[in-house]
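User: I've been trying to design a sequence by hand for this structure and keep getting stuck. Would you show me what you'd pick, starting by listing the structure so we're on the same page?

Assistant: Good idea, let's start from the same input. This is the structure you sent:
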């Protein structure tokens, strides 16, 4: 039997049956990826959806869409757990299409400005734009630590096929967008 939710009610669909749905919006909250980053919300939208119970599957005639929301406190928490290069007490500010990061190493304050890059529609990389450690550029040191955690997102970790298409960074949030289809099992 397959579980389904419609308008907030949870029910059971008998085995071997199908359910035709005009539009399906699925929202996953606080999705923790295996590398430690927690995505605040992932919204999957599909049109002309067929839900089958045996085996459980969701089929769409055209790819659906994905929108993933990551807020700056989640990025700061992720970086604190990674502690690249002994850095700690991360502060992240997502604005103006860039990621502004501050952290401490011993008694020094480190500031960095980063951008994002989608590679092959499958991976999200953080690219270092500039670094400042007590007024001294330390780009090579920070870049070597960044290389250890890149890519920060690989869609192979998700339970569905995704092609990342674009992103937006504004007002304390990162929004990733893409096209999604059912993953072959």
């Amino acid at each position: 039997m397959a579980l389904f939710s419609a308008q907030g009610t949870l029910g059971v669909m008998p085995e071997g049956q199908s359910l035709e749905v005009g539009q399906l919006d699925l929202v996953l909250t606080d999705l923790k990826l295996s590398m430690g980053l927690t995505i605040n919300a992932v919204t999957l939208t599909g049109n002309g959806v067929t839900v089958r119970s045996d085996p459980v599957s969701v089929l769409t005639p055209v790819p659906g869409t994905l929108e993933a929301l990551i807020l700056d406190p989640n990025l700061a928490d992720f970086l604190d757990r990674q502690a690249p290069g002994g850095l700690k007490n991360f502060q992240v500010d997502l604005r103006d299409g860039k990621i502004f990061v501050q952290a401490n190493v011993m008694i020094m304050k480190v500031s960095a400005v980063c951008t994002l890059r989608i590679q092959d529609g499958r991976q999200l990389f953080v690219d270092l734009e500039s670094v400042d450690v007590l007024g001294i550029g330390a780009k090579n040191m920070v870049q070597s630590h960044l290389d250890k955690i890149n890519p920060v997102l690989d869609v192979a970790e998700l339970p569905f096929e995704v092609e990342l298409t674009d992103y937006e960074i504004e007002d304390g949030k990162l929004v990733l967008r893409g096209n999604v289809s059912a993953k072959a099992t």
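That's my pick for every position. To get oriented when you compare it with your attempt: The radius of gyration is 20 Å. The CA atoms of residues 27 and 43 lie 4 Å apart.
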